[in-house]
Amino acid sequence: MGLIKLLFNDPVAFFLLAVLLLYSVILHEVAHGFVAWRMGDPTAKWLGRLTLNPIRHIDPIGSLMLLFIGFGWAKPVPVNLDNIPAVKRRKGLILVSAAGVTANIIIAFCALLIWRLVSPMPGGIIYNVLYYLAWINIMLAAFNLIPIPPLDGSKILMGFTPESFNRTLMQIEPFGFFIVLGLLLVGLLDPVIHFLQRVILTFISLLLP
User: Fold this and answer.
1) Can you give the pLDDT of all 209 residues of the chain as single tens digits?
2) What is the DSSP string of the chain?
3) How far is CA 192 from CA 101, 197, 199, in A?
4) Is 173 among the catalytic positions?
5) From 29, 32, 92, 155, the catalytic residue
6) Please, which residues have CB within 8 angstroms of residue 79's CB and are 6 or more apart in sequence?
């Protein structure tokens, strides 16, 4: 795995990347809470989760997996859509759910933009850190767009689909983690993740100067 190799080949780059990746998942969660607050739900704000203080967000297992596997998470920011006015609830569900993915795409865009500026000097610490930072944030965004609950993609989908279908998704949600894990283990999600990664990377490439 690339991150493990980086740890042994360049420990300084690894630990610098570790900090940036932890803040990547933190910003993902803060984005959810911030957009929910702006839409009318102050739950995350009341609970002190609209902060970049890592102590409020870090999930030990999710952090270790992120650093050593390249996939991880922070503690989910609580959102109560009932606090959003009914006329804006579907829009709120879409925007709140998409906020985390958007944060990861913005981080990837910024990393790739700076990476281009330092690309004449490949192999340096900054070069490697920016490469991995962009790659992992694109992967995090792609993974979260999968429309299986409790991933963000399922919530975005629920903003467009009938209530009867949404109730089915909500019934699946308690088992969603195991469904996603099983599909990952047998490789059935690989083509979906790779496709979403290509779409995101193409979109970012169109924005890069």
Assistant:
1) 557 777 888 889 889 999 999 999 999 999 999 999 999 999 999 999 999 999 999 999 888 888 777 778 899 999 999 999 999 999 999 999 999 999 999 999 999 999 998 876 767 789 889 999 999 999 999 999 999 999 999 999 999 999 999 999 999 999 998 999 899 899 999 999 999 999 999 999 999 98
2) -HHHHHHHH-HHHHHHHHHHHHHHHHHHHHHHHHHHHHHT--HHHHTT-SS--GGGT--HHHHHHHHHHS----PPPP--GGGS-GGGHHHHHHHHHHHHHHHHHHHHHHHHHHHHHHTTSTTSHHHHHHHHHHHHHHHHHHHHTSSSTTSHHHHHHHTTS-HHHHHHHHHHHHHHHHHHHHHHHTTTTHHHHHHHHHHHHHHHHHH--
3) 16, 9, 11
4) no
5) 29
6) 32, 33, 36, 41, 43, 44, 96
Residues 27 and 73: their CA atoms lie apart, in Å, by 11
| Token pair of 38 as six digits | 């702006």
Report the number of distinct structural domains present in the chain.
1
Which residues span the domain enclosing 110? 2-207
pTM for this structure?
Answer: 0.94
User: What pLDDT shows up at residue 122?
Assistant: 67
The length of the chain is 209
pLDDT at position 2, please?
58
Q: d(Cα 56, Cα 30) in Å, to the nearest integer?
A: 10
